[in-house]
C-alpha cells in the first residue's frame, strides 16, 4: 500500500510542479518520475535545513518543492547548451 501512495503522491507532485513551472504536466509517467525524484530531492533539502515533513500533506509539499527545484535545475542545464 505504501508503494501505491508513493506513486499517487509522486504523480500529483509532478503534475503540480509542472503546472507551477511551465504551465502543464508531463504526462502520467513523466509526472510520477518528476514527483518521485522531486520527493527524494525535497527530502534531502528538508534534512539539510533541519525541517521535517510528516503525513501525506507534508510528503506532498516536500515532493512539490523538490520537483519544482528539479525542473528549475534541469531547465538551467538545458538552457546553457
Structure described in brief:
InterPro entries: Transgly_assoc. This protein is an all-alpha fold and 81 residues long.
Overview of the structural elements:
With 81 residues, the protein is mainly alpha-helical. The chain has one domain. It is built from 3 helices and no strands. The protein has helices at 2-21, 28-49, 55-79. The mean pLDDT is 87.
Instruction: Characterize the main sheet.
Output: none
Count of DSSP E strands? 0
Cα-to-Cα separation, first versus last residue: 42 Å
The stretches of 5 or more residues where confidence is low (pLDDT under 50) are: none
Number of helices: 3
What integer value in Å does the Rg equal?
12 Å
Helix-residue proportion:
over 70%
Q: Structural class, from helix and strand content?
A: mainly alpha
Q: What fraction strand?
A: under 5%
- Count of the separate structural domains: 1
Q: Which whole number gives the mean pLDDT?
A: 87
Bulk shape: globular
- Give the H and E element order: HHH
Name a few traits of the molecule.
transmembrane helix, mainly alpha, membrane, transmembrane, 3 helices, cell membrane, Transgly_assoc, 81 residues
SSE topology:
Elements lengths: L1 H20 L6 H22 L5 H25 L2
Helix pairs in contact: 1-2, 1-3, 2-3
Amino acid at each position: 500500500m505504501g508503494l501505491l501512495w508513493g506513486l499517487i503522491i509522486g504523480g500529483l507532485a509532478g503534475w503540480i510542479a509542472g503546472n507551477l513551472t511551465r504551465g502543464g504536466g508531463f504526462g502520467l509517467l513523466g509526472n510520477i518520475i518528476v514527483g518521485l525524484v522531486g520527493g527524494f530531492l525535497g527530502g534531502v533539502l528538508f534534512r539539510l535545513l533541519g525541517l521535517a515533513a510528516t503525513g501525506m500533506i507534508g510528503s506532498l509539499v516536500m515532493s512539490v518543492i523538490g520537483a519544482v527545484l528539479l525542473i528549475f535545475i534541469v531547465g538551467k542545464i538545458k538552457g546553457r547548451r
